[in-house]
Write a structure and sequence with these properties.
single chain; transmembrane; membrane; mainly alpha
């Protein structure tokens, strides 16, 4: 447990030192704990957010807002959010490491898994802080923390690829964004084939 807490604080205060610690000892157990906490925090965030108010403000019908309210309170939604980080991080690491092995003949899957798990946890904490502060501050606070979380996760992901595969920032950025681009491509393809015009 001490390793987990130390690594979490390193990811907040000194990320490069956290990466070095992961290089020396990548603890998959610590990564699994981080992913579980990320999922629980994301599930809490979804329940705490005022999505209904947002949907009403953009003009959606009451039937749609009722459906979202039911989804927020459904037990299945909670478990979906809890398992989501496990699936997304695993798929991202598989794609990143497969391409790195194919192109650069290098592997760092376990290190990437731990690194992306901890950066996701810090991002989730930033998002929930923004949601909780909306009650005492303006809506801009949520935006600052949400975009800050996205930026933090992006920078840490690129730093991890750059650090563990020893490549330039441009190559690391391209490789880190590849799983996201592939996911978007699959989503567009599914939308065009399944959800297209009749």
């Amino acid at each position: 447990m001490g390793y987990f807490i130390d690594l979490l604080f390193l990811f907040v205060k000194r990320p490069a030192e956290g990466m070095r610690r992961i290089r020396e000892h990548p603890s998959v157990l610590a990564a699994l704990i981080a992913l579980l906490l990320t999922g629980v925090i994301d599930a809490m965030s979804f329940r705490l957010m005022d999505i209904v108010g947002l949907l009403k403000s953009i003009g959606l019908t009451s039937q749609m807002t009722d459906a979202v309210t039911q989804a927020q309170q459904a037990p299945g939604t909670f478990w979906t959010f809890v398992t989501e980080p496990f699936v997304l991080v695993m798929l991202s690491v598989v794609v990143i490491d497969a391409v790195a092995q194919l192109v650069w003949k290098r592997t760092a899957a376990s290190r990437m898994y731990v690194s992306l798990s901890f950066s996701g946890l810090v991002g989730a904490v930033l998002r929930v802080i923004g949601i909780l502060m909306v009650g005492v501050a303006s809506g801009i606070v949520l935006d600052v923390f949400a975009y800050g979380a996205i930026l933090y996760v992006l920078v840490m992901g690129v730093l991890a690829v750059r650090f563990f595969y020893e490549k330039s920032t441009a190559k690391a950025l391209a490789l880190y964004l590849l799983p996201t681009l592939l996911g978007l491509g699959v989503l567009v393809l599914l939308t065009m084939t399944v959800g297209g015009p009749a």
